[in-house]
Amino acid sequence: MGNGNSKGLSVNAKTIILLILFLDVGFTVKMIHKYNDMKDAGFVREKTFAENMEKRIMKAYGSPEEARKLVDEAVGQKQEAEKIADSLRGHDIKMRHINQELEHAKEQLEMEKVQLQKSERDKRLLLDSLKEGVYQCEPGVNGKFTWVNQSCAEIFGYKSPEEMIGTKVSDIYADQNDRERLVKKLEEDGVWRNFASYCKKKNGELFLH
């Protein structure tokens, strides 16, 4: 195959030639290793090997220049493939690093969640130990109790906090206007000291609280 003929080759033909070249290159590598072994043993002359390789190239590709050109193209494609592979490996390393950071952040959040739950339990235990009634409720006039301590439940005639949780806060007021005034004051100022009103227990009994 001469240099002039290679210019008219189609893309598919060049691809086939490159594939053949890779096969021959692989075979050539094996031959080189074998040659080196024989040379080290003193059975091969350098000139004879060079002549044989030149004859093989001439037979397969027409000229050493044409073979060199195909080899250069193959090497260029191999280098490009290696660059892509390196880029993918770098991307994989970055993704693993990101996943490790996410896993670490997840572990930190889990630890903080456990600590927060423990802090909440400790706070509830402290509030449960108080003799005064303490409760938490939803905002607004029609909000419901979301948590009460044991003392609060007993003050309003309930056997346990669970029995009182979920009932409307307005149900404990004898006068609904008192609840409305308290909610408005809390929304405006955040606190109302010394607030008192008539409340009622679960059985309807009224008392000043």
TrEMBL record:
Limits of the PAS domain: 121-191
Keywords associated with the record: Coiled coil, Membrane, Transmembrane, Transmembrane helix
Entries under Gene3D superfamilies matching the protein: PAS domain
Keyword Membrane (UniProt): yes
Segments crossing the lipid bilayer: 12-29
Presence of keyword Membrane: yes
SMART domains linked: PAS
InterPro entries tied to this protein: PAS, PAS-like_dom_sf
Coiled-coil regions listed in the entry: 88-122
Pfam families: PAS_9
UniProt xrefs under NCBIfam families: sensory_box (TIGR00229)
Full protein name: PAS domain-containing protein
